[in-house]
Amino acid sequence: xxxxxxxxxxxxxxxxxxxxxxxxxxxxxxxxxxxxxxxxxxxxxxxxxxxxxxxxxxxxxxxxxxxxxxxxxxxxxxxxxxxxxxxxxxxxxxxxxxxxxxxxxxxxxxxxxxxxxxxxxxxxxxxxxxxxxxxxxxxxxxxxxxxxxxxxxxxxxxxxxxxxxxxxxxxxxxxxxxxxxxxxxxxxxxxxxxxxxxxxxxxxxxxxxxxxxxxxxxxxxxxxxxxxxxxxxxxxxxxxxxxxxxxxxxxxxxxxxxxxxxxxxxxxxxxxxxxxxxxxxxxxxxxxxxxxxxxxxxxxxxxxxxxxxxxxxxxxxxxxxxxxxxxxxxxxxxxxxxxxxxxxxxxxxxxxxxxxxxxxxxxxxxxxxxxxxxxxxxxxxxxxxxxxxxxxxxxxxxxxxxxxxxxxxxxxxxxxxxxxxxxxxxxxxxxxxxxxxxxxxxxxxxxxxxxxxxxxxxxxxxxxxxxxxxxxxxxxxxxxxxxxxxxxxxxxxxxxxxxxxxxxxxxxxxxxxxxxxxxxxxxxxxxxxxxxxxxxxxxxxxxxxxxxxxxxxxxxxxxxxxxxxxxxxx
Length: 570
Description:
Elements: H1 2-17, E1 20-25, E2 35-44, E3 63-72, E4 78-80, E5 86-87, E6 98-108, E7 110-113, E8 119-122, E9 139-140, E10 144-148, E11 154-159, E12 162-163, E13 176-182, H2 184-190, E14 195-201, E15 216-220, E16 244-245, E17 250-251, H3 253-268, E18 277-282, E19 295-296, E20 300-301, H4 302-317, E21 327-332, H5 334-345, E22 353-356, E23 379-381, E24 386-388, E25 390-393, E26 399-402, H6 403-413, H7 422-430, H8 452-462, H9 464-479, E27 483-488, H10 496-508, E28 517-521, H11 536-539, H12 543-546, H13 548-557
Parallel strand pairs: 1-11, 15-18, 15-21, 21-22, 22-27, 27-28
Antiparallel strand pairs: 1-4, 2-3, 2-6, 3-5, 6-9, 6-10, 7-8, 9-12, 13-14, 14-18, 16-17, 19-20, 23-24, 25-26
Helix pairs in contact: 5-9
């Protein structure tokens, strides 16, 4: 008996000591200087696409681990072992033995000495839109095949001997122009030169009508590499249509997108189409692919920089009318929240917003939970059970992932709200600055326990429904008739829940009445933007045309006596 127990103890010791350790380093040829950043190690069952492209919220996701490095020397190994936090498996010890492909990335951080006295290390955007996979200058390794052996203790060396190339700047065309300015406000805040950019779609006849002054529409959204959805050439007749989009259950979607872009060009240049400017803003920053277009303790005064530096420069260069009655804003998802936020925070600077599938506009419906009353973001908790909160679904309600899983993926990608992803950017924008200079956590990223003090800070500054309700006496007269919201009732991220609450308020508020519009798409998923006559996969491509009639009606109904209503109607 005693030998059996001894044998069992030995076996247990061997299992406890058995683990695969990874040592990730970069050669001196890639950098002679020490580097700061986040080392990410990805393990996948296939190398096509590369493992770094396989990390996602889907059940098919690759495995990923991450570790911060400060002053990592050339040739020095960053160690990833059984103590390193991972997603979806928590530890390397939990990875099932077998054959895999492994790849590593070093997401570089830069040191910022901000005007608030804090020094922080963050990944500055380098033209890619905050994507750790493709950020220029990031080091990475080629995928290599490995075998994780059961019961073995082994170390795998991974060399970051590759580097992501620079991304070329987009070039001007006949209709699409590009502008980039250094922001005085943001440069002062971040302690280094900071820039804002925009892609501007100019109207047909712009050069032939130098006397014309134009209304302007800001199409908010994620980082645009160039102006989206506009093409002067039709798709080739023989364009490949074998591609399949699971979300829409449709083949040949790339050709549909290309055809819609060409159709937009034809409408834009047609005789009766209204002449105006459409702008897509570039405001990627050290935390995300855009700033949410508001002032923030952690990101700086992006709202004021866009409104009082970038927008006037665009209107100056491209002959915008430059008055609030001739400015409109629209967008979907992040852009939907930004469109409504711009209207709320700068109520007299815009004459209307069209917010589609907006990020949570009421935090007591923060996707699937109440940020003010619930104790945990990841679980609904009772005296005898905990139920995971869903994070994403399809139009049938089938759950793709949980809130916890998405947040754990973000935590692997970056500590201190540095993942460059969704929950972290909400935290970076809305939270106060912590003692360490990084955003205060709204909840514990591992456990989901909510910090009520941080939630109160969020409510008073960024909960759009709360702000409208609180300030309606003074704010209401400035936004009546200007708010338009659209959302699918099966939004993949449950964003319709907050829209319901906003809808109830806008319908009931008095003195003045809101005179607003809120519409829902039956069984429509994310990016539904208000057109019930078209399937979502079509309407989501028509943001730049579908609100034009409403914009024109708003201009006709609400403009100053001396407004220029003619020079741009040629």
